[in-house]
Specification:
Blueprint (H helix, E strand, L loop, with lengths): L1 H11 L5 H22 L2 E5 L5 E8 L4 E6 L6 H13 L1
C-alpha cells in the first residue's frame, strides 16, 4: 500500500497531479489580479463564499479613502468606471 502511494506521488512529480496544477494556475492568476489592483490603490475583500463584496479605494494624491460595497445588480463595467474615476480624483 505504501509502495503504491509512493509510486503515485513519484508519477505526479514535484508539481503534483494535473488537477493540482490547474488549481494553482487559477490561483496564480487571481493573485496577480489582486496584486495589480492593490498597486493601483484598490483592495478587494472576499466573503466566506469567495465572492468579492467590498472594495477599498485609496487616492494617495488627495488622501481619500472610499469603501464600496459591491452589489451584483450593478455591472462590472459600472464598477470599473467608478473605481477608475475615484482613483483619478
Amino acid at each position: 500500500m505504501l509502495r503504491e502511494r509512493l509510486a503515485d506521488l513519484e508519477a505526479q512529480g514535484v508539481e503534483g497531479d494535473e488537477l493540482t496544477r490547474r488549481e494553482r494556475e487559477m490561483d496564480d492568476a487571481t493573485l496577480l489580479r489582486l496584486k495589480i489592483y492593490r498597486s493601483l490603490g484598490v483592495d478587494i475583500e472576499a466573503d466566506e463564499t469567495g465572492n468579492f463584496h467590498k472594495a477599498v479605494i485609496r487616492n494617495s494624491r488627495k488622501g481619500d479613502v472610499h469603501v464600496v460595497n459591491i452589489d451584483p445588480k450593478f455591472s462590472r463595467f459600472f464598477y470599473s468606471n467608478y473605481f477608475w474615476s475615484t482613483m483619478q480624483g
